[in-house]
Amino acid sequence: MTNRRLVFGAVAVVALMVPLGMSSSGAGRPGDALMIEIGEEALMLVSPADDALWEVRDILEHRGTVWALTASAPFVHGFTPGGGRIAAFGTAGEGPGEFQFPHGLWPGDSDGTLTVWDAGRSTALTVSSSGELLESRVMADPGVIRADIRTVTFGDPFRIFREGAAVLMGRYDSGVSSGDDLWRGKLVRAYEKGGAAEEVVVDFGRDLPGAQHRPRAPSVLTPVPLWDGCPNGQVAVLDPIERTLYMFGPGQTAPEVIPLPWKPAELQRVEKFRYMKHQLTAELRNQDVPESEIDQIARSVLVDAEGMFPREAPIAVDLRCSGDRVWIQEFDSDAHPLGYGPRWRTVSRHDPASRFAQVSFPAGFLPYRITDSRAVGVVTDPLSLQHLATVDILAASTSVAALTVPTDKEFPGQ
Question: How far is Cα 326 from Cα 247, in angstroms, rounded to an integer?
Fold first, then answer.
């Protein structure tokens, strides 16, 4: 179903190429004070092996239930921490309680409820744990965003973070069809329609110095601004070109500025090939084209498209904020063509003496929410089927104590 806020349809392979953000190899760079390897023993599956999910968009752990939001109906899935499914609901449509393009989860205002943000309708729907619609609130419109943008670039323009009576979200008045469009957006604090006026937290193109130095020609795998809300009300924003982290807080006249010591690595040709193959595979998904033929086409296209890639790999592809630390995911094309690998760099917000560290999660695990004590996310198998999982960060290593302060009781955004 096509919606005015979402752009669907096939696009030429070269047009699929867009800017992104993170950095190639992970260990041993200047500024790395500590490296923590989290082993498989710290990972626990939440959804059963015979109950796989497909394309998880958001995860919420709240009051003993782990909720997952997926790309297709039933959209909402609930599991106990022990792995028992207790809910599966949400149909596609335009009627009451139905979803068009759901993309975010946060707890409802009353016990036993949760809220689903439907980006396709710019509406927040609060439902019971069994899926009964309790309330529907019209929210700010994020703009026209290409529906398959997560296949093309990192820097998720659909990210939303609940903050009291408001939500933090990106607004893209000129639309988003490639990574560079993310620089033209604003991070806003939006309220229910008819409530308080929208507040601009940061205008990426105006307020981030790196915006003036980004590539002007069509390019792919280049850095984009990354952000997340923090449990204490601050907002973490990464300028990946200037390699600077900004912390915007309530009542602050200016953000806290944290320069990052990490240097980008050279972007390798194999990384460019993996990206090209990824785009072609997505474009030819339903055409039964052999992998060997996709490889051949990717090599051929790369000959003409190599000039669209930057010399350096991006320094980051995602950012998450926990109680004490900002987590910045390194670019790693060995794990995923868009760089979603196991290694994260952390930045302490309270302890300048041990400001920076590195954490490597178990292979195949991708965290959606992180606290100072644990992470919840998915493990993806070779068939792209996903299972909910948690990682106990504190139990992983005694050296993790160097990362921690008193732990969060809830995940960011709750």
Answer: 10
